[in-house]
Amino acid sequence: KKDYRPIPDINITALVDVVLVLLIVFMIAAPMLKSTVDVAVPQAATAKPTDEEGITITIKQDGTILIDDTKVDESSFDIAFNQIYSANSNEPVFLKAAGEVSYATVLTVIDALREEGVTDLGLVADPAQSRTGRRK
Q: Which of 109, 93, 89, 90 is closest to 101 using CA atoms?
């Protein structure tokens, strides 16, 4: 007759197997999840040409900021814009950003414009194909 006694040690083999399977599942699933959506921003089907004059702020692909064709550092943008806007405060401001410019850069510029008191701000876009296929 054999004597069966409980083993006082914990068998963690099954636990390790489950943890490794979960690790493999997460390693495969994580790259498939994408937290951002690629959007081509600079085209709009409702974009309309305007002959209105104003202050144009351009943000190039590499992040360079221009105020009416004058290059400005991002750190000194507030001061440079204030000098131009104080002399022309009743003119509208047009913001023209390349499609590759980060949203954060555009929002930084818009926040700076709001702090300077700009109320008439237009975003420049190229006319895009409408949903029916015609250019507007």
A: 109
Instruction: Give SS3 for 62.
Output: coil
Q: Is the separation of the CB atoms in 121 and 129 below 8 Å? A: no
Query: Pick from 66, 71, 67: which is nearest to 91 by CA?
Result: 67
pTM of the model: 0.56
Cβ–Cβ < 8 Å for 45, 131: yes
- Could you tell me the residue ranges of all domains in the chain? 43-127
d(CA 32, CA 43): 28
85-115 confidence digits (pLDDT tens): 888 778 888 888 887 888 888 888 888 888 8
* First-to-final CA distance of the chain: 94
Q: CATH second-level architecture of 43-127?
A: 2-Layer Sandwich (3.30)
